[in-house]
Amino acid sequence: MCFETYDGCCSVWKQAMRKARKPHKCYECGAAIQPGEWYHYVSYIFEHTPGQYHLCDKCENVREHIKHIEEGRGCHGS
Questions:
Q1: Which helix (H) or strand (E) holds 32?
Q2: What is the 3-class SS of 44-64, one letter each residue?
């Protein structure tokens, strides 16, 4: 199974680095993202339903590492 990509599956897909103004929870590991910390923010619309999530830097780095390994093996999406 390949690392999931979002090219073409969502009508809207936006990613950004943000500095937290209030506490958030990492979508992947559940760790607290405290005010003042940088985190990865993703918003999307999938099948007419909007969604969003927050990722701590550690989890985003793990995702990127896995994606890089799989792309090196010829995988480009699920």
A1: strand 32-33
A2: EEECCEEEEEEECHHHHHHHH
